[in-house]
Amino acid sequence: MKIKTDRLVLFLVMSLVLLIASTAGAATQLPDVTLKTINGGSLSLNTLKGKVVLVNFFASWCLPCNAEMPDLVELEKQHKKEGLAVVGLALEPPSRLGIVKEFLKTHKVAFPVALAGKKEAGLFGGVSALPTSLLVDRQGVIVRRYVGMVPKKSLESAVKTLLAD
Predict the structure, then answer these.
(1) Residues of the chain with pLDDT under 50
(2) pLDDT for the residue 18
(3) What's the pLDDT score for residue 93?
(4) In sequence order, what are the residues at sequence separation of 6 or more whose Cβ sits closer than 8 angstroms to the Cβ of residue 9?
(5) Which pLDDT belongs to residue 2?
(6) How far is CA 129 from CA 35, 58, 78, 147, 155, in A?
(7) What is the dihedral of CA 134, 137, 139, 141, to 10 degrees?
(8) Would you list the domain boundaries of the chain?
C-alpha cells in the first residue's frame, strides 16, 4: 500500500511540474532571428515588436496540429487589424517542403511559415511536443507557452487580453 501511495505522490508531483513548465510563461524575449519562409522570403521576428505574436510549432503529419490549424487561421483573420501576427514554424525536414505547402494550402494559411529544425526550436526554449504555441506580448516577451492543442476560446481570450494592453 505504501509503494502505491509513494508512486501516486510522485506521479502527482511530476504532473504538477510538467503543468507549470508548460503553462507558466517564463519572461523570456522572442529571439531576434530572421527565418526563411517557405515561399523564399524572409521574416525577421524583430520587426514584429509592437504586435501580439503567436508562434506555432506544428507538423503536417501531426493530427492535433491539423485539428488546431483552422482555429489559428481564423484567429489571425479576426485579430490581424488589432495587431495580432501569427507565425508558423513547421518542424519538418526540407525534403517535405512540398507536403508542408500542400498542408498550408488545404488549411488556407495566409500567415508566414518557415521550416524549422532543432536549432530553431532551441532558440524558443525547445519543443517537447506538437503542437507548441508561444504567445508574445507587444514588448516581445514570451508570456505563455502552450504544449499541445489549445482550445480556441482559451487562446482567443489570452490574445484579446494582450491586444487590449
Answers:
(1) 9-26
(2) 44
(3) 96
(4) none
(5) 55
(6) 21, 9, 27, 6, 18
(7) -40
(8) 26-164
Q: Letter for the amino acid at 46?
A: N
Angle subtended by helix axes 63-79 and 152-164, to nearest 10: 30
- Determine if the peptide bond prior to 70 is cis (ω within 30°): no
CA distance 144 to 138: 13
Cell digits for 99? 507536403
pLDDT of residue 165: 87
CA distances from 66 to 20, 47, 97, 114 (A): 26, 28, 16, 17
Distances (CA, A) of 11 to 4, 23, 128, 161: 10, 18, 19, 33
> For residues 118 and 33, is the Cβ–Cβ distance under 8 A?
no
Phi-psi region of 57 (alpha: psi -120 to 50; beta: other; left: phi over 0): beta
CATH number of 26-164: 3.40.30.10
The pLDDT value given to residue 6: 57
